[in-house]
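Input structure tokens:
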């Protein structure tokens, strides 16, 4: 079929071309060529081509001499791929360390010929690291950039026939330790500019003996633990104290940035002069001496201008520079990315979810093997866990995968996606290997020596005092284990989940040390083959043997950007919408050919090309299994971008100006193996009309040393702050409404004894304007609190959940139910046995789950199920098993109820730890925690364990150092990291494990449990709810459409030192459709963007506009108030109950529409979600004309009220 060109592209045909090219007719836009797709066995992957056939025998050799001289040489070299002589076949350039570089000319049929000497690109007498082909001078042939460790860095200009002329790139460094190169048109002038990352020519360890560069010889204390680096060592080191640990970091070299002058010559730009600024726009006034490994230009923020991501090793932070549109750059906002990899090796970008936004992947060095994880404990400096610190960006030693939220901020999801570990990794590349429309990940791995091996590091530390020469010290490196590894491939399953492909799809059949990697179609069959530069082995050539339909596209740019670097290609009509951006260089030490390959089906496809200058070309009816070469002429300008809808909420936190106070506390002093801190679990929050003036006031609990704060709502637009109590000696956890027997309204607060002296109890306190009363509540740490009329006598009874036993985690804690006797709270005697040792209760809510008119109790347990206790005349029965919930065991945090399918039955929503952590388990292989005094020292030991596929057994979660510090017998028996790593849990703890008690968990997913009348059907909440820890769950009709929605507070930073903080959330609005289905609302559309570790939250209509507003707390950080300004107003309902329950807690209300249908049932609760209370004044969304409001009061009686207007106040009448 003849290709049909879109209208505005047709206009180009008559517009002429901007530059004459003898290979194109005037006005011609594209050429097409049918591809000869190989007939294969249907198996995707690669086959290594034998050197006896290809003629490629060169290898990148280094040996003892080079290693003793400079360990950085073990980082290897890369490859450059491109057609240097214009014959239509992609050629190969190989950088090498010991020997001259090699240029192989592709003769077709996988045969190559060495043409290094006539080409003039040998680069002898230097340690070549990186290489990239690009058309630097805009003459439509490929020039060559070669970087070297110690320099010089060279530019080779191609004369068009594959013969090059060399010139040296200018440098402010005498001998730069250069690594990778990337090119793009940063300043909109049509030619390619250049960025080169620098590492360091020679590390201090290779320069001076250990005694000379010891801490004692290089550092000096000034005063009060303030240290400086003494000259001349301050030219190489900087120092810092973290958590009272003195650290010293070696500095590397500043990168090089060049602007193309238009003649194919690069002019050096000092970044301290004008082009680079921090996130606030302040100029960078010092050189950033980072350990640079890879830089890649990409349009990260979708404005058509190339931004830069720079991967830096060690403690050097990764740099993300956003192009201001004129070739100057500003650092990305610190909150846009919450943490990064520690030793970032390489980066690549892809649109994982086909939403038009760039996502990206960064490689690091974590192993997939349990044994190597436990022996390679790493050199990463500890990350301080400061209370309330939000704006920092910690580094963790694993791969990172960043998902674009749609507003140019990112959630890091590597552990959710199972891409966090790929061994000691170097290069990475997205490629759709199996041509299913989803890009997979290829990774090169290996190192000459495993310098992270903890046993070897320990032996060297012990032997160092006996070393007599610098040469002997250097030779200690050879005592480390070697680390040849299999290359890794991750297959994209299309749901943000990846799986490791056996043998790396053919790239990892043999163990080796692979470094630079690049892709190109070496055999012209329309798929991408792979070339890998391997250390001490011949160059690896891998033929792609896929026989799936494909569409290949090569772009021809105008002006001097002849390869259209920076252009984006969007293809539709295949199995998925697919997009690619054309880059030059940007791979680890390497650069590939810019041909782009897309998965195709049997139907014709369409393409949209967004050129670097912002113009657009569209083409329809592209045939599969064809190569299209598409030329840039005068494309059309893009249509005006539609402005995003206004968000539902506006941040009005300035009305409160409140920050939660949290005193530091060492949770690990008594139980060093605690998984998390329990001293940072608050605060809770509550809305109630404390002054009974018709608007809702705020109460916020505080941490030890802080206060319980009250904000009086004056007019719906401002608040007056008060402190109910100051200088708390215990953390205040939950806060709820309270009324005494005389009808005096106030608050009831629980405080926790976790940070108290032994045997001090948790307290319960009531406060009103007339009195204050405090009494002992629990021997254990008090957590959640909920209240309802349990015994049907008209007053409110109170449940206090036992969160944990101080110094006895994870022994089941005891909870308590207080029965209200004429205003006095007395421990309930009927249910004492049930609540004794019931478990680690993290959340609670009273809710009529069985629809019989009385409040049942639902508990969220850590290391347990969502527990349902059915109320039968004030006696609670555990019906969890009969309801089918006992088998769903998690690390539950919060719980509440709502009618999500509008059947009149209350469903459960429960928050969990989330799947984006190092903890992974399943119903078949639950995670366990054992607890016992294994070493008989009167301290309860904690042993976390998980099932390992290689061991076919349980293995310990914690490392050898942590475990043996807590239980010294482990070090005595196992002696080494390796012995420990090779041991199953049973082999470490022996028979003591048999009798030790344990708890299990088999899910980390936050979910809704749909009430079917006989039990519950679990519905996993959307992806965005699973990528971080969720704490609070609140239910309201947020967007006013008549259906119940959910808000989740998210994140948890207070973890132990071997665990990443959970920081990928910002608070999440989840919209319900009334049928039990849920959709996440992005933060830029909801207006909720809270970056700290959120805790309690609560809904209220504080400005009385019939829209639901939201208050969100953060541990140790600012409390966030959000005003709903953009949803449809609803029906404002206030119920007035009895003197002893004036808020009518336990009532249920439901709208009846004119057509007889019913809205969702809403229950008025006190104490739900996570340690919080919503306003008892309800806002009900209305989807159509409504007639009646049906009310079920706390005593089970029912009334029906006519709906007239937007406000309804109903008073209980017992007649």
């Amino acid at each position: 079929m003849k290709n049909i060109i879109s209208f505005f592209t047709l206009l180009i045909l008559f517009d002429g071309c901007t530059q004459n090219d003898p290979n194109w007719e005037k006005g011609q836009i594209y050429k097409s060529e049918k591809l000869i797709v190989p007939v294969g066995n249907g198996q995707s992957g690669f086959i290594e081509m034998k050197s006896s056939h290809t003629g490629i025998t060169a290898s990148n050799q280094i040996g003892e001499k080079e290693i003793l001289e400079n360990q950085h040489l073990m980082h290897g070299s890369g490859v450059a791929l491109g057609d240097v002589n214009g014959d239509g076949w992609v050629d190969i350039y190989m950088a090498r360390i010991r020997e001259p570089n090699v240029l192989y000319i592709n003769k077709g049929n996988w045969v190559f010929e060495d043409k290094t000497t006539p080409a003039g690109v040998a680069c002898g007498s230097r340690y070549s690291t990186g290489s990239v082909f690009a058309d630097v001078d805009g003459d439509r042939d490929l020039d060559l950039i070669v970087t070297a460790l110690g320099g010089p860095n060279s530019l080779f200009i191609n004369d068009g026939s594959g013969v090059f002329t060399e010139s040296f790139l200018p440098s402010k460094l005498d001998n730069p330790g250069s690594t990778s190169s990337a090119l793009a048109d940063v300043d909109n002038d049509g030619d390619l500019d250049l960025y080169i990352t620098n590492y360091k020519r020679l590390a201090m360890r290779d320069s001076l003996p250990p005694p000379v560069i010891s801490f004692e010889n290089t550092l000096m204390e000034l005063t009060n633990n303030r240290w400086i680096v003494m000259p001349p060592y301050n030219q190489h080191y900087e120092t810092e104290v973290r958590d009272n640990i003195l650290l010293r970091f070696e500095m590397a070299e500043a990168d090089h940035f060049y602007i193309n002058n238009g003649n194919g010559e690069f002019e050096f730009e000092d970044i301290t002069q004008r082009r680079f600024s921090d996130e606030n726009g302040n100029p960078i006034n010092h050189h950033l001496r980072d350990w640079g490994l890879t830089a890649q230009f990409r349009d990260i923020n979708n404005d058509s201008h190339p931004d830069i991501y720079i991967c830096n090793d060690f403690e050097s932070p990764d740099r993300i520079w956003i192009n201001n549109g004129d070739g100057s750059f500003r650092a990305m906002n610190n909150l846009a990315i919450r943490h990064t990899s520690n030793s970032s090796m390489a980066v690549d970008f892809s649109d994982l979810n086909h939403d038009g936004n760039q996502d990206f992947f960064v490689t690091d060095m974590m192993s997939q093997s349990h044994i190597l994880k436990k022996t390679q404990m790493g050199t990463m400096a500890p990350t301080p866990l400061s209370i309330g610190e939000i704006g920092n960006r910690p580094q963790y030693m694993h791969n990172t995968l960043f998902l674009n939220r749609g507003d140019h901020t990112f959630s890091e999801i590597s552990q959710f996606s199972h891409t966090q570990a790929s061994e000691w990794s170097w290069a990475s590349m997205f490629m759709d290997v199996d041509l299913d429309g989803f890009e997979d990940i290829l990774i090169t791995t290996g190192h000459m020596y495993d310098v992270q091996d903890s046993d070897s590091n320990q032996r060297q530390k012990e032997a160092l005092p006996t070393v007599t020469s610098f040469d002997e010290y250097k030779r200690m490196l050879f005592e480390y284990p070697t680390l040849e590894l299999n290359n890794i491939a991750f297959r994209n399953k299309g749901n943000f989940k990846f799986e490791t492909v056996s043998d790396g799809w053919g790239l990892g059949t043999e163990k080796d040390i692979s470094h630079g990697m690049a892709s190109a179609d070496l055999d012209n069959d329309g798929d991408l083959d792979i070339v890998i530069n391997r250390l001490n082995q011949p160059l690896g050539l891998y033929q792609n043997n896929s026989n799936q339909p494909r569409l290949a596209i090569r772009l021809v740019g105008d002006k001097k950007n002849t390869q259209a670097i920076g252009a984006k290609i969007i293809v539709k009509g295949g199995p998925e919408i697919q997009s690619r951006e054309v880059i030059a260089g940007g791979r680890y030490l390497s650069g590939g050919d810019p041909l782009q390959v897309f998965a195709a089906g049997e139907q014709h496809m369409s393409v949209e090309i967004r050129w670097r200058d912002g113009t657009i070309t569209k083409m329809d009816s592209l045939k599969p299994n064809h190569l299209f070469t598409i030329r840039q002429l005068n494309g059309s300008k893009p249509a005006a971008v539609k402005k995003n809808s206004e968000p539902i909420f506006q941040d009005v936190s300035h009305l409160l100006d409140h920050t939660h106070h949290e005193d530091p506390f060492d949770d690990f002093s008594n139980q060093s193996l605690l998984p998390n801190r329990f001293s940072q679990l608050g605060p809770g929050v509550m809305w109630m009309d404390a002054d009974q003036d018709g608007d809702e006031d705020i109460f916020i609990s505080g941490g030890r040393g802080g206060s319980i704060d009250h904000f009086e709502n004056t007019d719906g637009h401002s608040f007056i702050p008060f402190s109910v109590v100051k200088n708390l000696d215990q953390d205040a956890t939950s806060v709820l409404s309270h009324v005494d027997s005389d009808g005096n309204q106030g608050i009831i607060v629980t405080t926790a004894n976790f940070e108290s002296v032994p045997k001090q109890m948790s307290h319960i306190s009531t406060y009103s304007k007339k009195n204050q009363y405090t009494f002992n509540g629990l021997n254990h740490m008090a957590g959640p609190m909920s209240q309802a009329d349990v015994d049907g006598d008209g007053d409110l009874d109170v449940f206090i959940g036992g969160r944990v036993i101080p110094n006895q985690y994870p022994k089941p804690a005891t909870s308590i139910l207080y029965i209200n006797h004429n205003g006095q709270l007395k421990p309930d005697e009927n249910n004492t046995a049930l609540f004794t040792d019931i478990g680690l209760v993290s959340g609670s809510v009273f809710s009529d789950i069985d629809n019989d008119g009385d409040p049942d109790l639902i508990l969220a347990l850590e290391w347990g199920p969502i527990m349902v206790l059915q109320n039968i005349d004030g006696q609670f029965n555990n019906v969890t098993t009969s309801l089918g919930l006992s088998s769903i065991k998690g690390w539950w945090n919060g719980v509440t109820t709502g009618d999500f399918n509008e059947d009149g039955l209350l469903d459960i929503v429960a928050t969990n730890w989330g799947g984006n952590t190092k903890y992974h388990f399943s119903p078949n292989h639950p995670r366990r925690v054992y607890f016992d005094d294994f070493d008989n020292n009167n301290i309860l030991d904690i042993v976390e364990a998980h099932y390992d596929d290689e061991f076919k057994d349980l293995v310990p979660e914690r490392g050898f150092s942590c475990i043996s510090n807590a239980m010294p017998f482990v070090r005595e028996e196992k002696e080494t990291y390796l012995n420990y790593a090779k041991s199953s849990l049973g082999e470490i703890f022996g028979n003591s494990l048999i009798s030790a008690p344990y708890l299990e968990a088999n899910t980390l997913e936050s979910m809704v449990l749909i009430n079917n009348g006989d039990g519950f059907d679990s519905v996993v909440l959307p992806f965005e709810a699973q990528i971080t820890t969720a704490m609070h769950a609140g239910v309201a009709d947020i967007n006013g459409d008549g259906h119940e929605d959910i808000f989740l507070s998210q994140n948890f930073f207070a973890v132990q030192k071997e665990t990443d903080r959970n920081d990928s959330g910002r608070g999440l609005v989840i919209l319900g459709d009334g049928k039990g289905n849920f959709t996440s609302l992005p933060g830029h559309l909801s207006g909720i963007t809270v970056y700290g570790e959120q805790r309690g939250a609560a809904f209220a209509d504080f400005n009385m506009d019939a829209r639901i507003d939201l208050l969100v707390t953060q541990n140790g950080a600012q409390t966030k108030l959000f005003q709903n300004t953009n949803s449809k107003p609803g029906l404002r309902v206030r119920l007035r109950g009895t003197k002893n329950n004036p808020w009518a807690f336990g009532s249920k209300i439901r709208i009846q529409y004119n057509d007889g249908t019913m809205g969702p049932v809403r229950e008025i609760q006190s104490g739900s979600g996570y340690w919080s209370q919503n306003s008892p004044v309800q806002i009900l969304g209305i989807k159509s004309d409504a007639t009646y409001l049906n009310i079920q009061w706390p005593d089970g009686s029912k009334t029906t009220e006519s709906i007239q207007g937007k406000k309804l106040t109903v008073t209980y009448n017992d007649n």
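The radius of gyration is 33 Å. Residues 1-19 have pLDDT under 50 and may be disordered.
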